[in-house]
């Protein structure tokens, strides 16, 4: 077996050195009747060539995003990532190291995490960011739990513009942790009055902008109302590239900002692994979940970095910890930070502008189809259209032509007939004019 | 400066002579922060912005500068390559970090995860266009079920602790479905800190189960606690093999005791690598167990994630598994069930995450499994256990083994008894290993032994590699006993940094870069 260095002779000699007669002597703690006599009912080992063939065959049953016109976002965005990113994250020293428990030989990881934290804090206009979470949806759940700890209240109010699966993740946590929740109905028009739902028991309001439907929301009045009631604003985004062009939550009074960072550096990857971003005010840092890299000095006075404030964490606090999380999304955070470093302020603004322009062009093209209506007052690179018929069969019909038209809202919000004709459409910098033309023509033809 | 584990956190100051003008030492290159060398008026990515009149941002356009410097591509390559060279990695040397299973990461798996059909695939693309992805997840789940002897699997949890949360949520949902109010979760003292943290998150009260003299949990103690808290035990969370590297000999009796008390058995699967193909956890009475794909199935640890933590479930808990579910139809097609109402047989407790889990990790883990097969996986577990015991046998006359009565499983535990009177601590010993070119073992965990050192070599190490490692441990142990304390107190001397001041980092947290204060003009 190519990954196992021992020969049978090595094994025999090592067993002799240990002083046992057979390998099963080392499994002496296992009840004898539980020790498997034979092999598992699974195939035998395969060569690298065989494994490659098998997996290639499975992968070919999928229709990759690059295979045709592609306009799907809804929490996962297709962007062009410089080849240098994937090369660098495959450096052995990044790929095959672990959590930097021994900082003297993990300065590479610790320094990029410190840089990542700074980028995320600046991008969201917040004072402090952690070293990343699993993804945007779990970060949103942790954001709500953190707000409960800060306010010592246990009721969250969720906007109807929140990604339905983010809402479901928060709802699951609230249900099983026995917290309270007020959920506003789906809000495709961006017209809800969430301020009216805040009361003296509210720990936080959770608002996404751009919303699941693409609407941009003015967060400042919501933050103000929340603060008046002693509650926090948890601001959510699913498309990090939007922050290159859109007013950041930190400038609008948000107390906790959570979001999905996949859009920079990370492929669609069928939903994971992604990288959750999490930022907050400095005064709340000790209530923040997740890992933190911090600056310090070594014994010779040189600058260095360590994991810090770990007294919040489970390996020390156990059942008093702020969260049960013990990993971040290190390698995805690295991909994010490299892509962001390559872009810089100038590149990110241009990237965001390119996305917005492409989406504007697509919105104009789709609005030109009779009986198709663009619902958004404002948007970044994603918007919602109302079709003259149910969206799901339209998407399926276009998929047969190799066009991925967007997300029929009914896929995530079944049982709501008023949403059945809505389609959420995204256009990133990868959406070329020819693809938009094919999509527009094909859509008009099937309607 | 010592913390409550007697663990030094503030290094002794040392004087340093300036050896080179740059501060570099040949291949050890100092690298400033991105924010000190990057510029906001350059970019490393060329982007075409098409012409367009007007925008649809409304009044939401960003006003202030962001503060994001860039590096051009050659500068960026150098920045990150230099950073990478300050990291120890499995590919550089032995990384015996106990309970983390730092085994070889085959590059075949990396290539497979990057096939466009997996990497360039949207999680919400129409189901007819993602049949291969659903097939792979379903098939990986089938392998996990066969390996563990369990009834079903929930694939979506994103890491071990997330899997643990998932398993405990399923238990809470099952207790609720029975109309009962059970609030107590038993957690052994030796458990990983995530176990009590997870239980507490769900509102359970944690009751600690003391370890026996030999490092294992007594079924009699579990029975006693079950009696004391009759009708209130929701679950026990037991790691097996446990964090002392021992197989719990009374695991079946413990399972029976918990079941008799009406509770469920959550098994922390962190140490599955020891028993892969040797024992099926399902046969031990387990109701839920998370599987760290990044440990046992070798998906890369990536500097601390991403992980993946699918949870296998018993028949009793299976209906409560979270969404989504992937079902195979009679026509051979796969169906992704995203809503409870779409499948009558399911009573899901909810959803752990957006989308369907760590697909990139699934592909890598499945590639690892296909490569090993039933025979290779069994051999891997046996070699992992062999290697841990070989290390233990090689040093047990010099280092102290707290539980000598049992063979080790895939990791060997030592305490700091052998350092008594030497003035050398576990942390000093670990730092001296760095100078010798090794990553230290896990230190000060588990908490049940004093100054713990937990060594997990994994199956990836050759005998020659282990021999050098054992010889090094022996040399260090003898040096400590001979009183060569400077070799330990000054360590690490040859790493990119000497010991770092953790106390200062925590007392005066600096968590992001800030522009230096402007210097007052001296002329005025």
Automatic annotation (TrEMBL), chain A:
Pfam families: GDC-P
Catalytic class of the enzyme: oxidoreductase
Gene3D superfamilies: Aspartate Aminotransferase, domain 1, Type I PLP-dependent aspartate aminotransferase-like (Major domain)
Annotated EC: 1.4.4.2
GO BP, sorted A to Z: glycine decarboxylation via glycine cleavage system; nucleoside metabolic process
Catalytic activity: N(6)-[(R)-lipoyl]-L-lysyl-[glycine-cleavage complex H protein] + glycine + H(+) = N(6)-[(R)-S(8)-aminomethyldihydrolipoyl]-L-lysyl-[glycine-cleavage complex H protein] + CO2
A GO molecular-function annotation: glycine dehydrogenase (decarboxylating) activity
Record SUPFAM superfamilies: PLP-dependent transferases (SSF53383)
Keyword Transport: no
Domain of life: Bacteria
Described function: The glycine cleavage system catalyzes the degradation of glycine. The P protein binds the alpha-amino group of glycine through its pyridoxal phosphate cofactor; CO(2) is released and the remaining methylamine moiety is then transferred to the lipoamide cofactor of the H protein.
Assembly description: The glycine cleavage system is composed of four proteins: P, T, L and H. In this organism, the P 'protein' is a heterodimer of two subunits.
Name of this protein: Probable glycine dehydrogenase (decarboxylating) subunit 1
Source taxonomy: Bacteria, Pseudomonadati, Pseudomonadota, Alphaproteobacteria, Hyphomicrobiales
TrEMBL record, chain B:
EC number(s) reported in the record: 1.4.4.2
Top-level class of the enzyme under EC nomenclature: oxidoreductase
Keywords, sorted A to Z: Oxidoreductase, Pyridoxal phosphate
A GO molecular-function descriptor: glycine binding
A Pfam family hit: GcvP2_C
Origin species: Propylenella binzhouense
Biological role: The glycine cleavage system catalyzes the degradation of glycine. The P protein binds the alpha-amino group of glycine through its pyridoxal phosphate cofactor; CO(2) is released and the remaining methylamine moiety is then transferred to the lipoamide cofactor of the H protein.
Superkingdom in the source lineage: Bacteria
Gene Ontology biological-process entries: glycine decarboxylation via glycine cleavage system
Matches recorded under PANTHER family: GLYCINE DEHYDROGENASE (DECARBOXYLATING), MITOCHONDRIAL (PTHR11773:SF1), GLYCINE DEHYDROGENASE, DECARBOXYLATING (PTHR11773)
Aminotransferase class V domain: residues covered: 173-302
Sequence ranges assigned to domain Glycine dehydrogenase C-terminal in this UniProt record: 380-480
Gene Ontology annotations for the cellular component aspect, listed alphabetically: cytosol; glycine cleavage complex
Region spans: Disordered: 482-524
SUPFAM superfamilies associated with the record: PLP-dependent transferases (SSF53383)
Ranges of Basic and acidic residues composition bias in the record: 483-505
Catalytic activity field: N(6)-[(R)-lipoyl]-L-lysyl-[glycine-cleavage complex H protein] + glycine + H(+) = N(6)-[(R)-S(8)-aminomethyldihydrolipoyl]-L-lysyl-[glycine-cleavage complex H protein] + CO2
Name of the molecule in the record: glycine dehydrogenase (aminomethyl-transferring)
């Amino acid at each position: 077996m190519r990954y196992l260095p021992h020969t049978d002779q090595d094994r025999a000699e090592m067993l002799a050195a240990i002083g046992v007669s057979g390998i099963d002597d080392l499994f002496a703690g296992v009840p004898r009747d539980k020790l498997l006599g034979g092999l598992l009912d699974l195939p035998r080992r395969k060569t690298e060539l065989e494994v490659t063939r098998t997996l290639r065959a499975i992968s070919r049953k999928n229709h990759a995003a690059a295979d045709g016109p592609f306009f799907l976002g809804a929490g996962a965005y297709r962007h062009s990532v410089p080849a240098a990113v994937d090369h660098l994250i495959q450096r052995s020293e990044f790929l095959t190291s672990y959590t930097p428990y021994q900082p003297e030989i993990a300065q590479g990881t610790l320094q990029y995490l410190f840089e990542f934290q700074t980028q995320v804090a600046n991008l969201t206009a917040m004072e402090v960011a952690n070293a990343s979470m699993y993804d945007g949806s779990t970060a949103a759940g942790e954001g709500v739990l953190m707000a409960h700890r800060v306010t010592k209240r246990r009721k969250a109010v969720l906007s109807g513009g929140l990604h339905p699966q983010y809402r479901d993740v928060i709802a699951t946590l609230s249900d099983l942790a026995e917290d309270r929740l007020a959920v506003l109905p789906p809000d495709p028009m961006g017209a809800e009055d969430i301020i009216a739902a805040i009361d003296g028991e509210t720990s936080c309001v959770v608002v996404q902008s751009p919303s699941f439907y693409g609407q941009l929301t003015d967060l400042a009045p919501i933050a103000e109302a929340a603060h008046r009631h002693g509650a926090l604003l948890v601001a959510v985004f699913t498309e990090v590239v939007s922050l290159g062009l859109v007013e950041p939550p930190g400038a609008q009074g948000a107390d906790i900002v959570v979001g999905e960072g996949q859009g920079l550096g990370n492929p669609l990857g069928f939903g994971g692994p992604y990288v959750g971003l999490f930022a907050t005010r400095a005064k709340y840092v000790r209530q923040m979940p997740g890992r933190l890299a911090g600056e310090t000095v070594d014994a010779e006075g040189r600058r260095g970095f360590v994991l810090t404030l770990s007294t919040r964490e489970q390996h020390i606090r156990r059942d008093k910890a702020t969260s049960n999380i013990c990993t971040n999304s290190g390698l995805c955070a690295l991909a994010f930070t490299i892509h962001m470093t390559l872009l810089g302020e100038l590149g990110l603004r241009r990237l965001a502008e390119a996305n917005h322009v492409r989406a504007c062009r697509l919105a104009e093209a789709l609005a030109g189809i009779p009986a198709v209506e663009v619902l958004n007052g404002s948007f970044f690179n994603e918007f919602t259209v109302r079709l003259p018929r149910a969206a799901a069969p339209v998407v399926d019909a276009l998929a047969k032509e190799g066009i991925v038209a967007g997300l029929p809202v009914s896929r995530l919000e079944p049982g709501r007939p008023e949403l059945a004709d809505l389609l959420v459409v995204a256009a990133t910098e990868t959406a070329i004019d020819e693809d938009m033309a094919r999509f527009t023509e094909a859509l008009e033809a099937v309607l | 400066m010592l913390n409550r584990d007697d663990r030094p956190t503030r290094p002794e100051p040392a004087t340093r002579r300036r050896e080179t003008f740059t501060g570099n030492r040949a291949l050890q290159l100092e690298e400033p922060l991105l924010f000190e060398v990057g510029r906001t008026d350059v970019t490393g990515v060329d982007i075409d912005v098409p012409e367009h009149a007007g925008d649809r941002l409304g009044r939401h356009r960003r006003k202030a500068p962001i503060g994001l410097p860039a590096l051009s591509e050659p500068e960026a390559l150098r920045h990150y390559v230099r950073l990478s060279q300050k990291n120890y990695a499995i590919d550089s040397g032995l990384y015996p970090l106990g309970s983390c299973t730092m085994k070889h990461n085959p590059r075949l798996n990396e290539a497979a995860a990057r096939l466009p059909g997996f990497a360039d695939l949207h999680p919400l693309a129409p189901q007819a266009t993602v049949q291969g992805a659903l097939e792979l997840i379903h098939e990986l789940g089938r392998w996990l079920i066969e390996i563990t002897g369990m009834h079903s699997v929930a694939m979506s949890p994103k890491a071990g602790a997330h899997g643990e949360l998932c398993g405990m949520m399923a238990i809470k949902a099952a207790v609720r479905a029975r109309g009962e109010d059970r609030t107590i979760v038993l957690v052994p003292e030796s458990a990983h800190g995530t176990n009590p943290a997870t239980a507490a998150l769900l509102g359970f009260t944690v009751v600690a189960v003391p370890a026996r003299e030999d490092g294992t949990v007594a079924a009699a103690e579990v029975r006693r606690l079950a009696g004391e808290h009759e009708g209130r035990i929701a679950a026990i969370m037991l790691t097996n093999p446990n964090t002392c590297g021992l197989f719990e000999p009374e695991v079946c009796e413990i399972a029976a005791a918990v079941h008799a008390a009406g509770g469920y058995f959550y098994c922390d699967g962190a140490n599955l690598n020891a028993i892969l193909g040797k024992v099926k956890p399902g046969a031990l009475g387990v109701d839920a167990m998370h599987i760290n794909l990044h440990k046992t199935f070798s998906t890369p640890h990536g500097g601390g994630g991403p992980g993946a933590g699918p949870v296998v479930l018993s028949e009793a808990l299976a209906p409560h598994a979270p969404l989504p579910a992937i079902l195979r139809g009679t026509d051979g097609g796969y169906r992704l069930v995203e809503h409870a109402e779409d499948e009558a047989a399911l009573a899901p407790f909810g959803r752990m995450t957006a989308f369907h889990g760590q697909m990139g990790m699934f592909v890598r883990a499945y590639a690892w499994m296909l490569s090993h097969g039933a025979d290779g996986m069994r051999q891997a577990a046996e070699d992992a256990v062999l290697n841990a015991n070989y290390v233990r046998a090689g040093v047990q006359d010099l280092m102290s083994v707290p539980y000598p009565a049992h063979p080790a499983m895939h990791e060997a535990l030592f305490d700091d008894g052998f350092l008594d009177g030497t003035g050398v601590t576990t942390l000093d010993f670990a730092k001296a290993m760095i100078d010798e070119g090794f990553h230290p073992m896990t230190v000060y965990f588990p908490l049940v032994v004093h100054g713990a050192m937990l060594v997990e070599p994994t199956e990836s190490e050759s005998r020659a590699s282990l021999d050098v490692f054992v010889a090094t441990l022996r040399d260090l142990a003898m040096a400590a006993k001979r009183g060569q304390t400077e070799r330990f107190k000054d360590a690490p001397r040859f790493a990119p940094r000497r010991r770092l001041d953790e106390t200062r980092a925590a007392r005066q947290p600096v968590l992001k870069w800030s522009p230096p204060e402007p210097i007052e003009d001296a002329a005025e």
